[in-house]
Design brief:
The mean pLDDT is about 75. Helices cover about 45% and strands about 5% of the residues. The protein is built from five helices and two strands; from the N terminus they run H-E-E-H-H-H-H. By secondary structure, it is mainly α. The N and C termini lie far apart (about 80 Å).
Length: about 130
C-alpha cells in the first residue's frame, strides 16, 4: 500500500510544476511600442497566440459605451420619469419577476413593456399603458 502511494506521488507531483516562462527577445527593428511594454516580443511555447494590446484611448472609449448602457433608468430620466416608466411596466407585464425596476436600464424596461403589450389579443383593446 505504501509503495503504491509513493509511486503515485512520484508521477503526480512532477506534473504539477508550472510550464516554462515566456522569454523577452529584443527585436531588430524597434518600432513604436505600446506604453509600459518592454522593447521586444514575447515568445512562449510553439504555436501560442501573440498577446493583444489595447490602446488606452480605445479602452476608454469602449468603457464609456458600456457605462452609458449600464446607467440606471432613474439616472437617465430622473426619478419621477423612471418611476412612471417602471409603473407602466408593472401594469402590463405578466412576468413573475419582471425587470420593471428603476435600477435597471430604461431600454430594458421599455423592451419589457413592448414584449408584454405584444402578448395582448389584437382583437381586444390594449391597456392605456401600452399606448402612453
Amino acid at each position: 500500500m505504501r509503495l503504491c502511494t509513493l509511486l503515485v506521488l512520484c508521477f503526480v507531483l512532477p506534473a504539477c510544476k508550472p510550464g516554462p516562462k515566456p522569454v523577452v527577445q529584443p527585436s531588430a527593428d524597434a518600432g513604436p511600442q505600446a506604453p509600459g511594454l518592454p522593447n521586444g516580443t514575447l515568445t512562449g511555447p510553439a504555436g501560442a497566440p501573440s498577446p493583444t494590446v489595447i490602446a488606452p484611448a480605445a479602452a476608454k472609449a469602449s468603457s464609456a459605451a458600456i457605462d452609458t448602457d449600464a446607467l440606471r433608468c432613474d439616472q437617465q430620466l430622473g426619478k419621477a420619469a423612471a418611476k412612471h416608466l417602471a409603473d407602466r411596466c408593472l401594469m402590463v407585464s405578466p412576468a413573475s419577476h419582471p425587470p420593471c425596476n428603476v435600477a435597471n436600464a430604461c431600454q430594458m424596461i421599455e423592451d419589457e413593456i413592448k414584449r408584454s403589450c405584444a402578448l395582448f389579443d389584437p382583437n381586444q383593446p390594449k391597456p392605456k399603458e401600452c399606448t402612453s
